[in-house]
Design a protein that fits this description.
Length: 515
Protein backbone atom coordinates (compact mmCIF):
# COMPACT_ATOMS: atom_id res chain seq x y z
CA UNK A 1 0.00 0.00 0.00
CA UNK A 2 1.40 3.41 -0.95
CA UNK A 3 2.26 5.70 1.94
CA UNK A 4 0.17 8.89 1.93
CA UNK A 5 2.27 11.84 3.05
CA UNK A 6 0.32 15.11 2.92
CA UNK A 7 2.18 17.92 1.17
CA UNK A 8 2.76 21.06 3.22
CA UNK A 9 -0.10 23.42 2.42
CA UNK A 10 0.60 26.77 0.86
CA UNK A 11 -0.87 29.63 2.87
CA UNK A 12 -3.58 31.60 1.04
CA UNK A 13 -2.62 35.17 0.38
CA UNK A 14 1.17 34.77 0.30
CA UNK A 15 3.67 34.45 -2.54
CA UNK A 16 3.52 31.05 -4.24
CA UNK A 17 -0.22 30.53 -4.01
CA UNK A 18 -2.07 31.23 -7.27
CA UNK A 19 -5.42 30.09 -5.92
CA UNK A 20 -6.23 29.56 -2.25
CA UNK A 21 -9.56 28.37 -0.86
CA UNK A 22 -10.39 28.19 2.85
CA UNK A 23 -13.48 26.69 4.51
CA UNK A 24 -15.49 26.68 1.28
CA UNK A 25 -18.98 25.39 2.02
CA UNK A 26 -22.03 25.17 -0.23
CA UNK A 27 -25.56 24.25 0.77
CA UNK A 28 -28.42 23.75 -1.64
CA UNK A 29 -31.99 23.39 -0.35
CA UNK A 30 -32.00 20.20 1.68
CA UNK A 31 -28.39 19.18 1.03
CA UNK A 32 -24.86 20.32 1.90
CA UNK A 33 -22.62 19.43 -1.06
CA UNK A 34 -19.35 21.02 0.16
CA UNK A 35 -18.16 21.24 3.75
CA UNK A 36 -15.18 23.40 4.78
CA UNK A 37 -13.03 22.58 1.75
CA UNK A 38 -9.47 23.96 1.71
CA UNK A 39 -7.43 24.01 -1.49
CA UNK A 40 -4.12 25.65 -2.45
CA UNK A 41 -2.58 25.67 -5.92
CA UNK A 42 0.98 26.93 -6.33
CA UNK A 43 2.69 28.71 -9.18
CA UNK A 44 3.46 26.48 -12.19
CA UNK A 45 1.76 23.50 -10.54
CA UNK A 46 -0.55 20.87 -12.03
CA UNK A 47 -2.95 20.14 -9.21
CA UNK A 48 -5.43 17.33 -9.81
CA UNK A 49 -8.92 17.30 -8.31
CA UNK A 50 -10.59 13.91 -8.14
CA UNK A 51 -13.59 12.30 -6.48
CA UNK A 52 -16.62 10.20 -7.23
CA UNK A 53 -19.58 11.69 -9.09
CA UNK A 54 -21.50 13.62 -6.46
CA UNK A 55 -18.39 14.32 -4.37
CA UNK A 56 -18.64 18.08 -4.97
CA UNK A 57 -16.04 18.60 -7.73
CA UNK A 58 -18.42 20.30 -10.16
CA UNK A 59 -19.88 22.52 -7.45
CA UNK A 60 -16.40 23.61 -6.34
CA UNK A 61 -15.42 24.47 -9.93
CA UNK A 62 -18.65 26.43 -10.39
CA UNK A 63 -17.92 28.43 -7.25
CA UNK A 64 -14.42 29.25 -8.52
CA UNK A 65 -15.96 30.25 -11.87
CA UNK A 66 -18.55 32.47 -10.22
CA UNK A 67 -21.52 30.36 -11.31
CA UNK A 68 -22.52 29.47 -7.72
CA UNK A 69 -22.09 31.59 -4.62
CA UNK A 70 -20.50 29.90 -1.62
CA UNK A 71 -21.98 29.89 1.90
CA UNK A 72 -20.97 32.63 4.38
CA UNK A 73 -17.53 32.07 5.87
CA UNK A 74 -16.06 30.70 2.63
CA UNK A 75 -12.92 32.55 1.51
CA UNK A 76 -10.74 32.62 -1.62
CA UNK A 77 -7.54 34.31 -2.82
CA UNK A 78 -6.13 34.78 -6.33
CA UNK A 79 -2.45 35.72 -6.50
CA UNK A 80 -2.54 36.91 -2.89
CA UNK A 81 -5.64 39.12 -3.23
CA UNK A 82 -8.88 38.00 -1.60
CA UNK A 83 -11.93 37.72 -3.85
CA UNK A 84 -15.60 37.51 -2.90
CA UNK A 85 -17.10 34.09 -3.68
CA UNK A 86 -20.33 34.62 -1.74
CA UNK A 87 -22.44 35.57 -4.75
CA UNK A 88 -22.68 34.24 -8.32
CA UNK A 89 -20.51 36.16 -10.84
CA UNK A 90 -18.60 37.96 -8.05
CA UNK A 91 -15.73 35.45 -8.20
CA UNK A 92 -14.94 36.07 -11.88
CA UNK A 93 -11.28 37.01 -12.24
CA UNK A 94 -9.09 37.50 -15.29
CA UNK A 95 -6.42 35.20 -13.81
CA UNK A 96 -8.93 32.31 -13.69
CA UNK A 97 -9.63 30.61 -17.03
CA UNK A 98 -11.80 27.53 -17.72
CA UNK A 99 -12.18 24.74 -20.25
CA UNK A 100 -15.28 22.76 -19.37
CA UNK A 101 -16.12 19.23 -20.49
CA UNK A 102 -18.67 20.78 -22.85
CA UNK A 103 -16.10 22.81 -24.77
CA UNK A 104 -18.54 25.58 -25.67
CA UNK A 105 -17.44 25.62 -29.31
CA UNK A 106 -19.51 25.98 -32.48
CA UNK A 107 -18.57 23.00 -34.69
CA UNK A 108 -20.13 24.59 -37.77
CA UNK A 109 -17.70 27.50 -37.51
CA UNK A 110 -13.93 27.61 -38.02
CA UNK A 111 -11.26 27.93 -35.34
CA UNK A 112 -10.86 31.56 -36.43
CA UNK A 113 -14.55 32.27 -35.87
CA UNK A 114 -14.66 30.42 -32.56
CA UNK A 115 -11.66 32.24 -31.10
CA UNK A 116 -12.98 35.58 -32.30
CA UNK A 117 -16.35 34.92 -30.68
CA UNK A 118 -14.63 34.05 -27.39
CA UNK A 119 -12.37 37.09 -27.59
CA UNK A 120 -12.94 39.89 -30.03
CA UNK A 121 -13.02 40.49 -33.77
CA UNK A 122 -10.27 42.58 -35.33
CA UNK A 123 -11.96 45.41 -37.20
CA UNK A 124 -10.70 48.11 -39.51
CA UNK A 125 -12.29 51.01 -41.26
CA UNK A 126 -16.06 51.06 -41.41
CA UNK A 127 -15.96 48.41 -38.65
CA UNK A 128 -15.33 45.63 -41.13
CA UNK A 129 -13.71 42.46 -39.84
CA UNK A 130 -10.09 42.08 -40.95
CA UNK A 131 -10.39 38.39 -41.78
CA UNK A 132 -6.81 37.86 -42.90
CA UNK A 133 -5.45 39.40 -39.72
CA UNK A 134 -7.99 37.42 -37.71
CA UNK A 135 -6.79 34.15 -39.26
CA UNK A 136 -3.14 35.12 -38.66
CA UNK A 137 -3.92 35.82 -34.99
CA UNK A 138 -5.60 32.42 -34.67
CA UNK A 139 -2.57 30.68 -36.18
CA UNK A 140 -0.33 32.55 -33.73
CA UNK A 141 -2.43 31.39 -30.78
CA UNK A 142 -2.40 27.77 -32.00
CA UNK A 143 1.21 27.58 -33.22
CA UNK A 144 2.53 26.86 -29.73
CA UNK A 145 0.48 23.65 -29.69
CA UNK A 146 1.62 22.37 -33.13
CA UNK A 147 -1.65 20.61 -34.00
CA UNK A 148 -1.64 21.26 -37.76
CA UNK A 149 -5.18 22.62 -37.88
CA UNK A 150 -6.60 24.48 -40.87
CA UNK A 151 -8.01 27.51 -39.06
CA UNK A 152 -10.46 28.28 -41.87
CA UNK A 153 -12.22 24.87 -41.93
CA UNK A 154 -15.25 24.06 -39.74
CA UNK A 155 -14.32 22.51 -36.40
CA UNK A 156 -16.68 19.63 -37.20
CA UNK A 157 -13.89 18.41 -39.51
CA UNK A 158 -11.26 18.61 -36.75
CA UNK A 159 -10.30 15.74 -34.46
CA UNK A 160 -11.55 15.73 -30.85
CA UNK A 161 -8.11 16.61 -29.50
CA UNK A 162 -7.79 19.51 -31.97
CA UNK A 163 -11.14 20.86 -30.78
CA UNK A 164 -10.03 20.55 -27.14
CA UNK A 165 -6.83 22.48 -27.88
CA UNK A 166 -8.82 25.19 -29.68
CA UNK A 167 -10.90 25.53 -26.49
CA UNK A 168 -7.69 25.82 -24.44
CA UNK A 169 -6.33 28.48 -26.79
CA UNK A 170 -9.62 30.37 -26.55
CA UNK A 171 -9.50 30.21 -22.74
CA UNK A 172 -5.93 31.58 -22.71
CA UNK A 173 -6.57 34.35 -25.24
CA UNK A 174 -5.43 37.68 -23.84
CA UNK A 175 -3.22 36.02 -21.23
CA UNK A 176 -0.23 38.34 -20.87
CA UNK A 177 1.85 35.94 -18.82
CA UNK A 178 2.48 35.82 -15.11
CA UNK A 179 0.76 33.64 -12.51
CA UNK A 180 -2.76 32.45 -13.20
CA UNK A 181 -4.90 29.31 -13.18
CA UNK A 182 -6.35 27.26 -16.04
CA UNK A 183 -9.08 24.81 -14.99
CA UNK A 184 -9.40 21.74 -17.23
CA UNK A 185 -12.55 19.71 -16.53
CA UNK A 186 -12.34 16.14 -17.89
CA UNK A 187 -10.30 17.19 -20.97
CA UNK A 188 -9.63 13.58 -22.09
CA UNK A 189 -13.05 12.07 -21.26
CA UNK A 190 -13.75 10.96 -24.85
CA UNK A 191 -10.24 11.03 -26.32
CA UNK A 192 -8.51 7.84 -27.52
CA UNK A 193 -5.19 6.97 -25.86
CA UNK A 194 -2.94 8.53 -28.52
CA UNK A 195 -4.82 11.85 -28.39
CA UNK A 196 -4.83 11.75 -24.58
CA UNK A 197 -1.06 11.40 -24.54
CA UNK A 198 -0.76 14.38 -26.89
CA UNK A 199 -3.00 16.51 -24.67
CA UNK A 200 -1.07 15.55 -21.53
CA UNK A 201 2.15 16.71 -23.22
CA UNK A 202 0.52 20.07 -23.93
CA UNK A 203 -0.69 20.34 -20.32
CA UNK A 204 2.90 19.82 -19.13
CA UNK A 205 4.12 22.45 -21.60
CA UNK A 206 1.63 24.94 -20.19
CA UNK A 207 2.84 24.17 -16.67
CA UNK A 208 6.47 24.56 -17.72
CA UNK A 209 5.66 27.98 -19.23
CA UNK A 210 4.41 29.16 -15.82
CA UNK A 211 0.68 28.44 -15.98
CA UNK A 212 -0.92 26.72 -12.98
CA UNK A 213 -3.51 24.07 -13.84
CA UNK A 214 -6.36 22.53 -11.90
CA UNK A 215 -6.82 19.19 -13.65
CA UNK A 216 -10.13 17.40 -13.06
CA UNK A 217 -10.30 13.81 -14.25
CA UNK A 218 -11.73 10.36 -13.52
CA UNK A 219 -8.77 8.70 -15.22
CA UNK A 220 -6.51 7.89 -12.31
CA UNK A 221 -3.58 6.78 -14.49
CA UNK A 222 -3.56 10.23 -16.13
CA UNK A 223 -3.57 11.95 -12.74
CA UNK A 224 -0.47 9.98 -11.75
CA UNK A 225 1.22 10.81 -15.06
CA UNK A 226 0.59 14.53 -15.22
CA UNK A 227 -0.13 16.00 -11.77
CA UNK A 228 2.28 17.32 -9.13
CA UNK A 229 -0.26 17.08 -6.31
CA UNK A 230 -3.81 15.80 -5.97
CA UNK A 231 -6.75 16.73 -3.76
CA UNK A 232 -9.42 14.10 -3.18
CA UNK A 233 -13.06 15.04 -2.47
CA UNK A 234 -15.42 12.54 -0.87
CA UNK A 235 -18.94 13.39 0.20
CA UNK A 236 -18.24 17.12 -0.08
CA UNK A 237 -15.13 16.95 2.11
CA UNK A 238 -11.48 17.28 1.09
CA UNK A 239 -10.16 14.04 2.56
CA UNK A 240 -6.54 14.31 1.37
CA UNK A 241 -4.02 16.50 -0.45
CA UNK A 242 -0.91 14.54 -1.42
CA UNK A 243 2.01 14.62 -3.84
CA UNK A 244 1.32 12.06 -6.56
CA UNK A 245 4.77 10.54 -6.06
CA UNK A 246 3.37 8.85 -2.95
CA UNK A 247 0.32 7.35 -4.68
CA UNK A 248 -0.77 4.58 -7.03
CA UNK A 249 -4.15 3.92 -8.69
CA UNK A 250 -5.26 1.57 -5.91
CA UNK A 251 -4.58 4.08 -3.13
CA UNK A 252 -6.22 6.89 -5.13
CA UNK A 253 -9.32 4.76 -5.71
CA UNK A 254 -9.45 3.88 -2.01
CA UNK A 255 -9.31 7.58 -1.06
CA UNK A 256 -12.09 8.42 -3.53
CA UNK A 257 -14.49 5.65 -2.53
CA UNK A 258 -13.57 5.12 1.11
CA UNK A 259 -13.10 1.39 0.59
CA UNK A 260 -11.14 -0.96 -1.60
CA UNK A 261 -12.11 -0.92 -5.29
CA UNK A 262 -10.35 -2.44 -8.24
CA UNK A 263 -9.43 0.19 -10.87
CA UNK A 264 -8.37 -2.65 -13.19
CA UNK A 265 -11.61 -4.65 -12.86
CA UNK A 266 -12.08 -7.61 -15.24
CA UNK A 267 -15.40 -9.43 -15.55
CA UNK A 268 -13.85 -12.64 -16.97
CA UNK A 269 -17.04 -13.64 -18.76
CA UNK A 270 -17.14 -17.14 -20.27
CA UNK A 271 -16.87 -17.67 -24.01
CA UNK A 272 -20.17 -17.40 -25.88
CA UNK A 273 -18.93 -18.75 -29.24
CA UNK A 274 -21.19 -21.83 -29.15
CA UNK A 275 -24.33 -20.02 -28.00
CA UNK A 276 -27.09 -18.94 -30.42
CA UNK A 277 -26.67 -15.77 -32.45
CA UNK A 278 -28.83 -12.85 -31.34
CA UNK A 279 -27.67 -10.43 -34.05
CA UNK A 280 -26.19 -10.67 -37.52
CA UNK A 281 -25.25 -7.57 -39.51
CA UNK A 282 -24.00 -7.65 -43.09
CA UNK A 283 -22.58 -4.97 -45.39
CA UNK A 284 -23.16 -2.01 -43.06
CA UNK A 285 -22.23 1.14 -44.94
CA UNK A 286 -22.62 4.83 -44.32
CA UNK A 287 -20.61 7.81 -43.07
CA UNK A 288 -17.21 6.37 -41.96
CA UNK A 289 -18.48 2.80 -42.60
CA UNK A 290 -17.42 0.67 -45.57
CA UNK A 291 -19.09 -2.73 -45.47
CA UNK A 292 -18.95 -3.99 -41.85
CA UNK A 293 -20.09 -7.52 -40.95
CA UNK A 294 -20.73 -8.30 -37.29
CA UNK A 295 -22.17 -11.24 -35.34
CA UNK A 296 -23.16 -11.18 -31.67
CA UNK A 297 -23.93 -14.34 -29.67
CA UNK A 298 -26.23 -14.69 -26.69
CA UNK A 299 -24.37 -13.54 -23.57
CA UNK A 300 -21.47 -12.12 -25.60
CA UNK A 301 -19.98 -8.64 -25.15
CA UNK A 302 -18.32 -7.48 -28.37
CA UNK A 303 -16.05 -4.47 -28.09
CA UNK A 304 -15.49 -2.00 -30.94
CA UNK A 305 -12.11 -0.24 -30.95
CA UNK A 306 -10.57 2.23 -33.36
CA UNK A 307 -9.15 5.70 -33.75
CA UNK A 308 -11.40 8.70 -34.51
CA UNK A 309 -12.70 8.43 -38.07
CA UNK A 310 -12.31 4.64 -38.12
CA UNK A 311 -16.07 4.05 -37.91
CA UNK A 312 -15.93 2.95 -34.28
CA UNK A 313 -18.23 5.74 -33.07
CA UNK A 314 -20.67 5.44 -35.97
CA UNK A 315 -21.21 1.66 -36.05
CA UNK A 316 -23.56 1.40 -33.01
CA UNK A 317 -25.72 4.22 -34.36
CA UNK A 318 -25.92 2.49 -37.73
CA UNK A 319 -26.90 -0.80 -36.10
CA UNK A 320 -29.64 1.02 -34.18
CA UNK A 321 -30.99 2.68 -37.33
CA UNK A 322 -29.95 6.08 -35.97
CA UNK A 323 -27.22 7.02 -38.47
CA UNK A 324 -28.31 9.08 -41.46
CA UNK A 325 -27.30 7.46 -44.73
CA UNK A 326 -26.56 4.03 -43.24
CA UNK A 327 -27.53 0.95 -45.23
CA UNK A 328 -27.06 -2.79 -45.05
CA UNK A 329 -29.11 -5.63 -43.58
CA UNK A 330 -29.60 -7.13 -40.13
CA UNK A 331 -31.19 -10.12 -38.45
CA UNK A 332 -32.19 -9.99 -34.79
CA UNK A 333 -32.91 -13.22 -32.92
CA UNK A 334 -34.90 -15.63 -35.05
CA UNK A 335 -36.50 -12.85 -37.07
CA UNK A 336 -36.01 -12.29 -40.76
CA UNK A 337 -33.51 -10.03 -42.47
CA UNK A 338 -34.35 -6.33 -42.53
CA UNK A 339 -32.70 -3.53 -44.49
CA UNK A 340 -31.38 -0.42 -42.81
CA UNK A 341 -32.75 1.96 -41.76
CA UNK A 342 -36.10 0.12 -41.44
CA UNK A 343 -35.19 -1.75 -38.26
CA UNK A 344 -37.07 0.12 -35.55
CA UNK A 345 -38.72 -1.93 -32.82
CA UNK A 346 -36.85 -5.15 -33.55
CA UNK A 347 -35.11 -5.64 -30.22
CA UNK A 348 -32.15 -3.23 -30.22
CA UNK A 349 -31.53 -0.53 -27.61
CA UNK A 350 -28.83 2.15 -27.84
CA UNK A 351 -27.00 3.91 -24.99
CA UNK A 352 -25.61 6.95 -26.84
CA UNK A 353 -22.15 8.43 -26.40
CA UNK A 354 -23.29 11.81 -25.06
CA UNK A 355 -25.92 11.27 -22.39
CA UNK A 356 -26.35 15.02 -21.79
CA UNK A 357 -27.21 15.87 -25.40
CA UNK A 358 -28.64 12.59 -26.68
CA UNK A 359 -30.21 10.72 -23.75
CA UNK A 360 -31.10 12.75 -20.68
CA UNK A 361 -34.07 15.15 -20.74
CA UNK A 362 -32.83 17.77 -18.30
CA UNK A 363 -36.29 19.17 -17.56
CA UNK A 364 -37.68 15.74 -16.57
CA UNK A 365 -37.46 13.90 -13.28
CA UNK A 366 -35.43 10.77 -12.60
CA UNK A 367 -38.50 8.55 -13.02
CA UNK A 368 -39.75 10.28 -16.15
CA UNK A 369 -36.36 9.86 -17.81
CA UNK A 370 -36.29 6.17 -16.93
CA UNK A 371 -39.75 5.31 -18.26
CA UNK A 372 -39.60 7.33 -21.49
CA UNK A 373 -39.03 4.23 -23.62
CA UNK A 374 -41.92 2.21 -22.15
CA UNK A 375 -44.70 4.76 -21.61
CA UNK A 376 -47.09 2.71 -23.73
CA UNK A 377 -47.15 0.09 -20.97
CA UNK A 378 -48.80 2.56 -18.59
CA UNK A 379 -51.34 4.02 -21.02
CA UNK A 380 -55.00 3.62 -20.13
CA UNK A 381 -57.82 5.44 -21.90
CA UNK A 382 -55.53 8.30 -22.85
CA UNK A 383 -54.02 8.60 -19.37
CA UNK A 384 -50.75 7.44 -17.82
CA UNK A 385 -51.20 5.18 -14.79
CA UNK A 386 -48.77 6.99 -12.50
CA UNK A 387 -48.82 4.44 -9.71
CA UNK A 388 -47.82 1.66 -12.07
CA UNK A 389 -45.16 3.88 -13.69
CA UNK A 390 -43.68 4.70 -10.28
CA UNK A 391 -43.58 1.04 -9.25
CA UNK A 392 -41.74 -0.01 -12.41
CA UNK A 393 -39.32 2.93 -12.19
CA UNK A 394 -38.58 2.21 -8.52
CA UNK A 395 -37.80 -1.43 -9.34
CA UNK A 396 -35.29 -0.35 -11.99
CA UNK A 397 -33.75 2.32 -9.74
CA UNK A 398 -33.16 -0.40 -7.15
CA UNK A 399 -31.80 -2.79 -9.80
CA UNK A 400 -29.16 -0.40 -11.11
CA UNK A 401 -28.57 1.14 -7.66
CA UNK A 402 -29.26 4.78 -8.47
CA UNK A 403 -28.60 7.10 -5.52
CA UNK A 404 -30.81 8.67 -4.39
CA UNK A 405 -33.60 6.44 -5.82
CA UNK A 406 -36.14 9.29 -5.93
CA UNK A 407 -38.72 9.26 -8.75
CA UNK A 408 -39.54 12.98 -8.55
CA UNK A 409 -36.01 14.33 -8.18
CA UNK A 410 -34.86 16.36 -11.18
CA UNK A 411 -32.43 14.20 -13.14
CA UNK A 412 -29.78 16.93 -13.37
CA UNK A 413 -29.45 16.81 -9.57
CA UNK A 414 -27.82 13.38 -9.92
CA UNK A 415 -24.14 12.68 -10.56
CA UNK A 416 -22.97 11.68 -14.04
CA UNK A 417 -22.60 8.05 -12.96
CA UNK A 418 -26.17 7.87 -11.69
CA UNK A 419 -27.48 9.54 -14.84
CA UNK A 420 -25.67 6.91 -16.90
CA UNK A 421 -27.29 4.15 -14.85
CA UNK A 422 -30.70 5.65 -15.64
CA UNK A 423 -29.96 5.64 -19.39
CA UNK A 424 -28.84 2.00 -19.22
CA UNK A 425 -31.94 1.06 -17.20
CA UNK A 426 -34.21 2.83 -19.70
CA UNK A 427 -32.71 0.78 -22.52
CA UNK A 428 -32.94 -2.50 -20.61
CA UNK A 429 -36.56 -1.79 -19.68
CA UNK A 430 -37.35 -2.37 -23.37
CA UNK A 431 -36.24 -6.03 -23.00
CA UNK A 432 -33.87 -5.88 -25.99
CA UNK A 433 -32.15 -8.83 -27.64
CA UNK A 434 -29.04 -6.67 -28.07
CA UNK A 435 -27.82 -3.66 -26.09
CA UNK A 436 -25.53 -1.19 -27.88
CA UNK A 437 -23.37 1.04 -25.66
CA UNK A 438 -21.23 3.99 -26.78
CA UNK A 439 -18.64 5.35 -24.35
CA UNK A 440 -20.46 3.67 -21.42
CA UNK A 441 -18.27 5.17 -18.67
CA UNK A 442 -17.31 8.59 -20.09
CA UNK A 443 -17.19 11.08 -17.21
CA UNK A 444 -17.90 8.34 -14.65
CA UNK A 445 -15.75 7.90 -11.53
CA UNK A 446 -13.93 4.71 -10.58
CA UNK A 447 -16.58 3.55 -8.08
CA UNK A 448 -19.55 4.05 -10.41
CA UNK A 449 -17.50 2.63 -13.28
CA UNK A 450 -16.97 -0.67 -11.46
CA UNK A 451 -20.67 -0.78 -10.51
CA UNK A 452 -21.65 -0.33 -14.18
CA UNK A 453 -19.19 -3.04 -15.27
CA UNK A 454 -20.50 -5.48 -12.68
CA UNK A 455 -24.11 -4.79 -13.66
CA UNK A 456 -23.43 -5.23 -17.38
CA UNK A 457 -21.49 -8.44 -16.69
CA UNK A 458 -24.51 -9.73 -14.80
CA UNK A 459 -26.74 -8.95 -17.78
CA UNK A 460 -24.35 -10.83 -20.08
CA UNK A 461 -24.40 -13.85 -17.76
CA UNK A 462 -28.18 -13.70 -18.04
CA UNK A 463 -27.91 -14.05 -21.83
CA UNK A 464 -28.03 -10.47 -23.10
CA UNK A 465 -25.83 -9.76 -26.13
CA UNK A 466 -23.99 -6.45 -26.10
CA UNK A 467 -21.85 -4.27 -28.35
CA UNK A 468 -19.56 -1.79 -26.56
CA UNK A 469 -17.94 0.99 -28.60
CA UNK A 470 -15.40 2.97 -26.59
CA UNK A 471 -12.33 5.17 -26.91
CA UNK A 472 -11.39 4.02 -23.39
CA UNK A 473 -9.54 0.71 -23.54
CA UNK A 474 -10.50 0.20 -19.89
CA UNK A 475 -14.10 -0.44 -20.98
CA UNK A 476 -13.00 -3.03 -23.51
CA UNK A 477 -10.68 -4.80 -21.08
CA UNK A 478 -13.25 -4.86 -18.29
CA UNK A 479 -16.21 -6.63 -19.85
CA UNK A 480 -15.60 -7.65 -23.47
CA UNK A 481 -15.29 -11.28 -24.56
CA UNK A 482 -14.17 -10.22 -28.04
CA UNK A 483 -12.84 -6.95 -29.52
CA UNK A 484 -13.24 -5.90 -33.15
CA UNK A 485 -10.71 -3.29 -34.29
CA UNK A 486 -11.81 -0.87 -37.01
CA UNK A 487 -9.86 1.23 -39.50
CA UNK A 488 -11.12 3.23 -42.50
CA UNK A 489 -14.67 1.99 -41.98
CA UNK A 490 -13.78 -1.70 -41.97
CA UNK A 491 -13.32 -4.36 -39.33
CA UNK A 492 -9.61 -5.14 -39.77
CA UNK A 493 -8.81 -7.37 -36.80
CA UNK A 494 -10.54 -9.45 -34.14
CA UNK A 495 -9.03 -10.03 -30.69
CA UNK A 496 -10.61 -12.74 -28.57
CA UNK A 497 -10.68 -13.58 -24.87
CA UNK A 498 -7.21 -14.15 -23.38
CA UNK A 499 -5.58 -12.13 -26.17
CA UNK A 500 -7.41 -8.95 -25.11
CA UNK A 501 -4.79 -6.62 -23.62
CA UNK A 502 -4.32 -2.89 -23.82
CA UNK A 503 -1.12 -3.25 -25.82
CA UNK A 504 -2.79 -5.64 -28.28
CA UNK A 505 -5.69 -3.23 -28.84
CA UNK A 506 -3.49 -0.14 -29.22
CA UNK A 507 -1.05 -1.96 -31.51
CA UNK A 508 -3.85 -3.13 -33.81
CA UNK A 509 -5.42 0.35 -33.93
CA UNK A 510 -2.16 2.05 -34.87
CA UNK A 511 -0.79 -0.73 -37.10
CA UNK A 512 -3.55 -0.51 -39.66
CA UNK A 513 -3.47 3.29 -39.78
CA UNK A 514 0.09 3.04 -41.04
CA UNK A 515 -0.71 0.46 -43.74
Amino acid sequence: MAKLTPAPALVPGVRGSVLGLASVTKTFPGARVLADVDLDIGEAEIHALIGQNGSGKSTLIKIIAGYHGADPGSRAWVNGSEIDISKPTSAKHDRLRFVHQDLGLFPELSATDNLALRGEFLVGRMHRVRWRAQADLTRTLLDRFAIGLDVDRPLSEATPVQRTIVAIAAALAGWEGGPGLLVLDEPTAVLPPKDSRMLLRIVRQLRDSGTSILYVSHRLDEVLQVADRVTVLRGGNAVATCPVANLDTQSLARLMVGQDVDPSYRARLPSADTRPLVMRARGIRGPFLDGVDLDVHEGEVVGIAGLPGSGRSELPYALAGALNGARGKMQIGTGGWRALPNISNIGISLVPADRTQQAIVAEFSVGENLTLSILSRFRWMGWIRKRRERAVAKAWLDTVKVQPPAFDLRVTALSGGNQQKIVVARCLAQNPHVLLLCEPTAGVDVGARQAIYEFLAGQALGGLGMVVSSSDTGDLLAICTRVVVMCNGRAVREISRDEITESAILHAMEEFVQV
